[in-house]
Amino acid sequence: MAERISLKADILRALRNAKEHISGQQICDEMGVSRTAVWKVMKQLEAEGYDIEAVTNKGYMLLSYPEILSGSELMSRMNTKWAGKRVYFHKETGSTNEDARYLAEEGMLHGSLVVADSQTGGRGRRGRGWVSPPGESISFSLLLKPSFSPDRASMLTILMAISIAEVISALHPDLDVKIKWPNDVLVNGKKVCGILTEMEAEPDYIHYVIIGVGINVNQTEFPEELAQIATSLRIEKGEKAGRPELIVAAMEYFEYYYGIFEEHLDVSDFVDIYDRYLINRDREVRVLDPKGEYTGVAEGINDNGALIVRIPDGSFRTVSSGEVSVRGVYGYV
Ligand code: BTN
Q1: Which atom of ligand 1 lies closest to the CA of 194?
Q2: Whose CA is nearest to atom 10 of ligand 1?
Q3: Radius of gyration over every alpha carbon of the chain, rounded to an integer in angstroms
Q4: How high is the pLDDT of residue 330?
Q5: What is the pTM for the complete model shown?
Q6: Domain with CATH 3.30.930.10 in the chain
Q7: What is the rounded CA–CA span in Å between residue 115 and residue 113?
Q8: Strands 59-64, 51-55: parallel, antiparallel or unpaired by DSSP?
Q9: CA distances to 25, 150, 194 from 222, in Å
Q10: Residue 148: which of 206, 190, 203, 191 has the closest Cα?
């Protein structure tokens, strides 16, 4: 299992927050560790690429930090109450959703977060795969242990989709961010983020929910079969994007939205924001319903997160996620 890094993260946080040099003794006192332990962590951080100035009689100062994704980097930035409060980081793993499932079965807490630099067996929706190359992508899975009933759980995916859309928009205001119902996040009409929500439940009781998120951040190209529908933030921006800040901000937004969601246990408070991002809105969509395909115009979502589609006779149908898939009449959107 992944290592839980805590002293390193605490020291990194102290260095990051310090306005001036911070003395080794102060770090020792605050963290209850020896000078040697602090020195060892400083050396580890330097080996990872952090530029730390050490001045006699003044202490340590963080001059610059590397573009890396690591457990300590994430934990040193995290300011949430519960979402992502515990981070389990893997340089490489099969699937973070599988890791989160293991943690859930081991009794890990609500809000535990598994993050990987790369996945070798990333899973997508509907049995598809998901590619998470090292150094370029974000793969994380958030473990939730809600006390509400299982029929509410699919709406958590909507909350995560809005969180990711908001985070990308806030950190990269130059990008045109949209959501393809129910939960693909797009930039300039191509997919940058997919969400796979899985649940272990009894008919009236949720054991746990795992929300797995994959974001294409710094890929410079995609295989031919994906290039028409997938993109990365880097391709769209023309420059590299930082990964830790995206993950930390995603946890902050999700925690905030989850608190609002718990008040009504529906997405009534999120319909406006979701519909603003909804790329399908007022567009013709083809609903691939196993009971019979039909086309109509997508009007937005209802309080349960279902897509409202106006069909040619003027009546409305609601499309629940999971049952059917929705395509643009002329392609992906
Ligand atoms: C989709 O098909 O759009 C959903 C893709 C979800 C991928 C993420 S990456 C992190 C987590 N671990 C997985 O194996 N899948 C999800």
Answers
A1: 3
A2: 139
A3: 22
A4: 58
A5: 0.93
A6: 71-276
A7: 6
A8: antiparallel
A9: 50, 36, 15
A10: 206
242: amino acid identity, one letter = G
The Å distance, Cα 54 to ligand 1 centre, comes to 42
pLDDT at 288 (0 to 100): 85
The pLDDT value given to residue 4: 37
- Cite the residue boundaries of each domain of the chain with CATH code 1.10.10.10: 2-64
Token pair of 98, please? 């599988």
Q: How far apart are CA 5 and CA 317, in angstroms?
A: 49
The single residue listed with the structure tokens 């196993």 is: 290
Q: Which residue has the tokens 């797995």?
A: 212
CA distances 167 to 217, 251, 267, Å, are 13, 10, 19
Compute the distance between CA of residue 261 and CA of residue 269 in angstroms, rounded to an integer: 8
Choose one of 120, 139, 247 to mutate for the ligand 1 pocket test, by most ligand atoms within 8 angstroms of C-beta. Answer: 139
Q: Which atom of ligand 1 is nearest to the CA of 128?
A: 2
Q: What is the pLDDT of residue 17?
A: 92
Residues of the chain with pLDDT under 70: 1-5, 321-325, 328-333
Q: What is the pLDDT of residues 31-69, one digit of tens each?
A: 889 999 999 999 999 999 999 999 999 999 999 999 899
Domain 2-64 has CATH 1.10.10.10: yes
Using DSSP's 3-state secondary structure scheme, residue 302 falls into coil
Question: Is the Cβ–Cβ distance between 83 and 113 less than 8 Å?
Answer: yes
Q: How far is the CA of 323 from the centre of ligand 1 (A)?
A: 19
Residue 291 is predicted with a pLDDT of 84
Instruction: Judge: domain 71-276, CATH 3.30.420.40.
Output: no
CA-wise closest residue to 183 among 114, 124, 246: 124
How far, in Å, is the centroid of ligand 1 from the Cα of 120?
12
| Ligand 1 atom having least distance to the Cα of 121 | 14
Cα 250 from Cα 168, distance rounded (Å) = 9
Class of CATH domain 280-326: mainly beta
Q: Which residues line ligand 1 (CB under 6 A)?
A: 95-97, 119, 122-125, 128, 130, 132, 139-141, 184, 194-196, 212-214
**Which atom of ligand 1 is nearest the CA belonging to 183?**
3
